[in-house]
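To: structure subgroup
Subject: Chain for Friday's discussion

All,

I'm putting the inputs and outputs inline so they're searchable in the archive.
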Amino acid sequence: MVLTGHGRRTADWLVGGALVMALAGVTGCSGDTDSAADKKPAAGSSAPAGSGEPEKGEQESGAPAPRSSAADQATAEGAVAAWVAAVIKGDAEEACLLMGEAATGASPAKAGSPSTCGSDAPRAKQMEKAVGSFRESFTPEPPTDDPKVEAAQVPATGDEVVIPADRITVDGKTLEEVILSNSTGVSREDLNVNVEAGKIEDAWYVTNLDFDIG
């Protein structure tokens, strides 16, 4: 996705459609049919109605099941850096595994699992589209097969952390600079990008991407 100063509606649609579908529908890999505009977590289990069984890859309590990502999720910064790197690499499965949804009054905490983030899973296909939408914007020039991504430590509010794009570096450049370099007619003042992370059980997951232009 290359952003342009005249493409705010397109960018908004991509955020409100493709990625928020991933975050509201695939974040925590739950809720296939959530409206992007609502940005509401799915209520209860996403198992078929009447099955009485939790979705595969989730414990009955709703807590994250064992996962296969090798990323360091002991800190919010580690999870965010690993997620940005996965997007740049086009690794939709890893990006999905690094995404989660904190508990609400209507829904338990959920996080990506191998069964819901595998290549054949419907939610994984949604994530693949979302990652494809943002990969070009997040990739610096010249691109590398193994980008070095770091996220600065920022103060947490409880179990939530918001890391601005100018506090995330990709191969020595801030993510904000990378996005701007891949954009046309978009100024620094127009761009507001933040990656949000939340703690679920003992690990950190990306819970939202606030990508605002204008």
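Points worth raising on Friday:
The chain has a mean pLDDT of 74.
The radius of gyration is 16 Å.

D.
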